[in-house]
Write a structure and sequence with these properties.
The protein has about 150 residues and is an alpha+beta fold. It is built from 4 helices and 4 strands, in the order H-H-E-E-E-H-E-H. A 4-stranded mixed beta sheet has the order 1-2-3-4, with helices on both faces.
């Protein structure tokens, strides 16, 4: 294990209970997408990357949507630095960012379109952006198949 460790067992236990899926932001976006008639897969495995999942996946269109938490993924607007055990947390957050970059690269190499939404974004705006990408991909696939 990394020589840097969480500040205490209590802190480690509390952080282990933080939800990794079905967050309020993710659920709000999913509800709007569903209400718009879009159907998708939830927690779909990232191809070629075991133990990683796509929050919302449009598998036939190869669209991957991630709803990233501001703290965990180092949001440029809302990221905060922990005062307790700062080196450990900095390392943890940087590892998350590197994993996000690697996940994006792996998906793009397999012809997936990746959308990353911050939890602070308006769910309505996020869903509208996703709907535009879905419509564009449907049109692109339709145009390609009619050739």
């Amino acid at each position: 294990m990394n020589e840097l460790q969480a500040a205490s067992r209590k802190t480690s236990s509390r952080m282990a209970r933080v939800g990794q899926r079905d967050t309020a932001a993710e659920m709000a976006v999913r509800r709007l997408l569903h209400a718009a008639g879009l159907r998708y897969r939830v927690q779909f495995p990232v191809p070629g990357r075991p133990r990683r999942t796509i929050d919302v996946a449009f598998t036939r269109l190869r669209i991957a949507v991630f709803v990233d938490g501001c703290y965990w993924h180092d949001c440029p607007l809302h990221a905060t630095q922990s005062k307790t055990n700062a080196d450990w947390w900095r390392s943890k957050i940087e590892a998350n960012r590197q994993r996000d970059t690697d996940t994006n690269r792996a998906l793009i190499e397999r012809d997936w379109f990746v959308i990353r939404v911050w939890e602070h974004q308006s769910p309505v705006e996020a869903a509208a952006e996703i709907e535009r990408v879905v419509a564009r991909r449907v049109n692109d696939i339709g145009a390609a198949s009619s050739r």
